[in-house]
Amino acid sequence: MDFSMSRRQFLTRSGQVAMAAGVGGSLLAACGGGSGSNSSSGPVNLTFGWWSNTPAKDNSMKAWIKDFEKANPNIKVKPEILPWGNYWDKLKTTTAGGNAYDIIGMSSGMAAPYFDSGALADLTTFSDYTDATKSLSPATLTLSQWSGKTFALPIGTSISVLGYNKALLDAAGVAAPDPVKAMTFDEFKTMAKKLTKIQNGKGVQYAINPTDILDYDMFIRMNGGKTFDNPVNPTKVTTNNPEGIQGLTDYLSLFTEKLAPPYNELTNGPGPSTSVLWIRVKSPLRVSDPGSSPIWPKIPTMVLRRSLPSSSQ
Questions:
Q1: DSSP symbol at 45
Q2: What does the record list as coiled-coil region(s) (predicted)?
Q3: What is the crossing angle of helices 242-256 and 215-222, to 10°?
Q4: What number is the average pLDDT over the span 193-212?
Q5: 145 half-sphere exposure, CB direction, 13 A CA radius
Q6: pTM across the whole model
């Protein structure tokens, strides 16, 4: 099957990224008709692939599809929501075999090989493209573009959340952070030092457990820089500048000042346990994707921004 010639094949991505019934609905309708045209009056059947992300979110996705079908009665969407690993295994084999889903949910970190495969339709060829993308952030839409073509429509971007364990803060006599007012990085480190416990040269409690190896990228962006020239199709590292150096310095200070555990003690587990103590390494604070665990909505969070000159504060 020649994907590039099939008008029903196109990618939508969520950043993590999926089909958007409101934003991408017109594009989905166009897939069943002529190139760049509206869908035909006859029935259109589409398959949609996505990965499971908690029962509540899976049900929301299914409800979203039902709303789309209600607004477009001649289009039927058959969803298949699989566990994370199973989804990517199937997507890889079906794309190679020419029988992938009509609509593909895509994580930005996985996108490059699919964008470069020739298996996806360029959405700019559809007549509804301009109208469907006029309300989208140009910067976010860039994540869906490759070699001058647009292969996806973003429906959201994920952010890292800094959550804290109130019981451990109370035990250390540290006041709960303001959930709205941003804390500078220097203020954060002052608080973090009160939460770190070192006994006989060994950490028994660290202030923060940054389990994601990409946290350094977050610190670079907090300082106004970026790690690569292009997040989806990088050609060079762009950290050799004041913003990048400051971000890396801030990140490194978490370890050199013993506010975070050494990497050999870190874990890449799915998130906090039901006791709200971090896996393997006991720490009052943790940076994570809020979608990584169903209990994250119950965890208090704080806001952190980079240190700014006093005249700007």
A1: E
A2: none
A3: 130
A4: 79
A5: 12
A6: 0.58
In the chain, where are the structural domains located?
A: 3-157, 161-312
Sheet strand arrangement including 10-11: 10-11, 103-104, 44-51, 75-82
- Domain 161-312 matching CATH 3.40.190.10: the answer reads yes
Separation of alpha carbons 308 and 288, rounded Å:
24
Distance CA 273, CA 239 (A): 35
More reliable by pLDDT, 141 or 85? 85
User: How far apart are the C-alpha atoms of 247 and 33, rounded to whole Å?
Assistant: 49
291-255-195 Cα angle (round to 5): 75
The CATH T-level fold of domain 3-157 is D-Maltodextrin-Binding Protein; domain 2 (3.40.190)
Which amino acid, one-letter code, is at 111?
A
How far is it, in rounded angstroms, from Cα 129 to Cα 41? 20
